[in-house]
Write a structure and sequence with these properties.
Length: 379
């Protein structure tokens, strides 16, 4: 079977959708599927052509961002050529806007099936009142099938289309790669982090919706009462970088206890999780964050919020602590609660990994998608 995965983002771009597309592509390849990827993900790397091979996957890379009307037209034309050239069976798009609309329209024109994967921001952000809603509504009604990363999103999508057309397929994580390992004491020593000083952290794309302001504000309150360190690992948007600068100027302790690490290569990410004692993602809006899955797989307790599908992932007071989005006082007290108890951290961390293995395995994700592919091809 021949599948084209359509996404606005793909590595080396970072973020949940980029990670998810590549993960599914590699798993499908292992199962014997022919997989092609069409993406808009910033600039092409030096020497890359718009069509090239990466890790035995054929990647069509327009290299145009941000999305404009001209970009959408180019993406649609490129996708139609891919469908014809490779005799594609199914177009599988990520997000109901942008890629979803483009993929569904091309599939209808070529008389093949299409799947749209809803991630969270597409429905929660634009549902009913957003300017993208007519486009999202058309996409969901005209694609062949819809997958959602959570039950919460399925309930929203079912307002527009019948439930029988929707399937929940959770994100997954490779637990043989993301696992608890010995800390790299050399890195911690280089940063003057003493043995026994708790280390908290966030790994991901630093943008407003991830609650970076809440995290920095809560950490400033934590520092008034406890010695602990905070890592921010990943790309920090301009407004987030300005915010970090502000907090450094307001609180001199930030210069010693706050550590900013730029994006790291994927193979090194598990090592950075294993520098931490506590993972924190105080999202204001979210779908089902890969970062939380990865942290739990590494046996880290999680302090997070009730945004999006996070409560389907984290069990409050068992694998982590959930607070309301934007509640800085509760976020602060939850961080201190885990900073103060190594026993509680270890207990939650172990239960978190057990939960990931049971409910969020890679086999469940790939088999769930293959089941839908087979159903559509046979119909």
């Amino acid at each position: 079977m021949k599948i084209v995965l359509l996404s606005h983002s793909y590595p080396p771009s970072i973020g949940g959708v980029a990670t998810s597309v590549k993960r599914l592509a590699l798993m499908l390849k292992e199962k014997g599927f022919s997989v092609f990827i069409s993406t808009l993900s910033g600039k092409l790397l030096p020497g890359q052509e718009q069509e090239h091979i990466e890790e035995d996957l054929t990647l069509y890379h327009l290299g145009k961002f941000p999305v404009t009307s001209d970009t959408k037209a180019s993406w649609f034309e490129q996708l139609c050529r891919i469908i014809d050239k490779h005799k594609i069976d199914i177009v599988h798009s990520y997000y109901a806007s942008r890629a979803g609309f483009t993929g569904t329209m091309a599939a209808k024109l070529k008389g093949i099936n299409s799947i749209v994967s809803i991630r969270g921001n597409d429905l929660e952000k634009d549902m009913f009142c957003g300017s993208n809603f007519p486009l999202i509504e058309w996409t969901l009604k005209n694609c062949s099938y819809v997958t959602c990363v959570s039950k919460n999103l399925k309930s929203l999508a079912s307002i527009i289309i019948p439930e029988k057309k929707i399937e929940v397929i959770y994100n997954s994580v490779n637990t043989s790669i993301f696992k608890k390992e010995l800390r790299n004491r050399e890195i911690l020593s280089d940063l003057s982090i003493q043995e026994g000083e708790p280390v908290t952290g966030f790994i991901g794309e630093g943008k407003a919706k991830k609650g970076i302001y809440s995290l920095l504000k809560a950490f400033s309150l934590v520092l008034e009462r406890r010695k602990s360190h905070l890592f921010l690992i990943g790309t920090m948007r301009r407004e987030m970088a300005d915010m970090i600068k502000y907090f450094r100027e307001e609180n001199q302790l930030f210069n010693h206890y706050l550590h900013i690490v730029p994006p790291v290569l994927p193979e090194y990410i598990p090592k950075f999780y294993n520098l931490l004692d506590i993972f924190i993602m105080p999202s204001l809006r979210d779908g089902m964050p890969n970062g939380i899955l990865e942290a739990m797989a590494c046996e880290l307790p999680v302090v997070t919020t009730s945004a999006g599908a996070i409560p389907e992932l984290v069990k409050n007071e068992k694998t982590g602590i959930i607070v309301e989005p934007g509640n800085i006082d509760n976020l602060t007290s939850s961080m201190i609660k885990l900073i103060d108890s190594k026993e509680l951290r270890e207990k939650m961390g172990k239960k978190g990994r057990e939960r990931v293995i049971k409910y969020f395995s890679q086999s469940k994700e790939v088999e769930g998608n293959i089941k839908i592919y087979n159903k559509l091809v046979k119909s």
